[in-house]
Design brief:
Helix 5 (221-231) runs parallel beside helix 7 (260-269). The chain has helices spanning 13-27, 65-72, 154-164, 186-198, 221-231, 238-252, 260-269, and strands at 36-38, 43-48, 50-52, 58-63, 82-88, 92-98, 107-110, 124-134, 165-170, 176-183, 204-208, 213-219. It is elongated, with a radius of gyration of 25 Å. By secondary structure, it is α+β, with helices and mostly antiparallel strands. The chain starts with 12 loop residues before the first helix and ends in a 5-residue tail after the last helix.
Length: 274
């Protein structure tokens, strides 16, 4: 790697001095953007180890969100990052970074890779958190721009469903039909929900407390069909096209009782019973 040294022209000396002074002032950051660390917490839990098979077997402990706040004295703030340090009795020490937390979410503690074999799934262990560090807030990518959020259109909705969502269809249990978008940033989903509301849809937002991810749902055969009708021309991924095809196949499937919402969904999508 090479470092380029730029010569300063005579007329630029004054500007360069101002820049240097600016850098000097930046080093004295406000307290609000400096990390805050609380030590010697000594908060303990007796928790059963869980085994997850996402990207290979991993041992994990899950701390209840409100209980974590009560025992540590730390209130988890929306979209903030935290570093937890502690130990598992009889196993060893751990360090866990929580990225873009959701207020009230549960706290997952993953066993370090080198200690995996020392933890037996289903067995209870004493977990101790010694310190919690709240990292500086991330820079808002929209800060300083005229647009404070996304200009929502159906093309934009389609791109989010394409990459961060799913389209569900299950004719059993009276029929389950849903279009969902998942995202860590609540404000983004609130903007999407406002757009859908303006288009005559009723959406519902839920929080998965285990991973801090928000889910925005449009539920019901007729409501989901209307969303699909609007986004289908802009869908690009093979997987979402397959989900739409499965949705249509499920809606058109013969059934003993034809629910009104399914009848409306068929009409919206131009389908007839197979």
């Amino acid at each position: 790697m090479y470092k380029i040294n730029h010569a300063t022209a005579e007329g630029d000396r004054e500007r360069a001095t101002k820049v240097d002074k600016g850098k000097e002032s930046q080093s004295k950051r406000p307290k609000s953007i400096v990390s805050e660390k609380i030590e010697n917490i000594n908060a303990t839990w007796i928790l059963a180890a869980r085994l997850h098979e996402w990207d290979g077997p991993r041992r994990q402990f899950n701390i209840n969100g409100p209980e974590f706040e009560r025992k540590t004295g730390v209130t988890v703030e929306e979209m903030r990052d935290y570093v937890l340090r502690g130990r598992i009795d009889g196993v060893g020490e751990f360090q866990k970074t929580l990225h873009r937390c959701a207020a009230g979410q549960h706290i997952p503690i993953y066993v370090p890779a080198k200690l995996q074999d020392k933890v037996e799934p289903g067995r209870s262990y004493r977990i101790t958190i010694d310190s919690v560090e709240k990292l500086p807030p991330r820079k808002n990518p929209w800060e300083g721009r005229e647009a404070e959020g996304i200009h929502w259109t159906w093309r934009e909705v389609a791109s989010w469903v394409d990459t961060e969502g799913w389209i569900g269809s299950n004719p059993k249990r009276g029929g389950y039909y849903d279009v969902c978008v998942c995202q860590k940033e609540r404000k983004m989903l609130e903007g999407l929900g406002s757009f859908l509301e303006s288009e005559g849809f009723h959406s519902r937002m839920t929080l998965n407390r285990n991973d801090g991810v928000y889910h925005l749902h449009v539920h019901g055969a007729d409501q989901a069909a209307r969303v699909i009708k609007n986004i289908e021309p802009f869908i690009r991924t093979v997987r979402k096209k397959e989900e739409i095809a499965n949705f249509k196949e499920s809606i058109a499937r013969p059934r003993r009782t034809l629910w009104p919402t399914v009848r409306i969904a068929r009409k919206i999508l131009g389908l007839t019973e197979n």
